[in-house]
Write a structure and sequence with these properties.
Elements lengths: L8 H13 L4 E3 L9 H5 L3 E12 L11 E4 L4 H11 L8 H8 L4 E7 L7 E8 L2 E9 L8 H15 L4 E6 L4 H9 L3 E13 L1
Parallel strand pairs: 6-7
Antiparallel strand pairs: 1-8, 2-7, 2-8, 3-4, 4-5, 5-6
Length: 203
């Protein structure tokens, strides 16, 4: 994945060509609003995936998490990465660098660990700024699925967000991930009708 901090479409194209010359098969943009994607499209990137944005008012009632949770900014990253690699496939997996970047993308953030801190059953990565909280990432160890841990993590994330005085929590989800969509809907999230666009360049 490439992040463009400054530069035009020609610069982006040159940087991407350099990566593909090094043997990188497909280079992806970060998830983008359509209004932010013009320079990427001009640089030769094409839409590969969309993510639906969902949100939940934190003023709505919710049940508290009923299992032990650890809140930390310094988890055992090898354990978090293990869960992430097992829970997702292919390009949807995140590296430790990507997880750390997500943790530092907002002014206040935390990792919520379900169960034993040294060998958790799942995690949620949350952040907040300017009155909006974000459920950046959630993953459950495949061996622990079916125990309601995903719901408990979402409820813990909502509880964490309320303590930051946020008024709303936002997340994004793949349209094809029906299980995740149903989970979020059960916990009070609704689709906003806005999508994020994931653009790709190359094979």
């Amino acid at each position: 994945m490439v992040r463009l901090l400054r530069g035009n479409a020609a610069f982006l194209r040159d940087a991407t060509d350099h990566l593909t010359a090094l043997g990188v098969g497909t280079v992806y943009s970060p998830p983008l609003y359509r209004s932010s994607s013009a320079v990427w499209r001009a640089g030769g990137y094409e839409e590969r995936h969309r993510l639906h944005i969902m949100e939940r008012s934190l003023g709505l009632p919710s049940e508290p998490a009923r299992i032990a949770m650890t809140t930390t900014v310094d988890p055992l990253w090898d354990q978090v990465l293990r869960i992430d690699q097992d829970a997702f496939e292919g390009m949807w997996r995140m590296s430790e660098t990507g997880l750390r970047e997500a943790l530092h993308s907002t002014r206040v953030a935390a990792v919520l660990l379900a169960g034993d801190r040294t060998q958790p059953d799942g995690y949620a990565l949350v952040g907040t700024q300017w009155g909006v909280s974000y459920l950046h990432r959630i993953a459950v160890d495949p061996g622990q699925r079916g125990r309601g841990i995903g719901s408990e993590l979402v409820r813990a994330a909502i509880g964490w967000a309320r303590k930051t005085l946020s008024t709303v929590m936002v997340l994004n989800v793949r349209p094809s991930n029906h299980d995740a969509r149903r989970l979020y809907e059960r916990e009070g999230f609704t689709a906003t009708g806005t999508d994020l666009h994931l653009l790709g360049y190359g094979a």
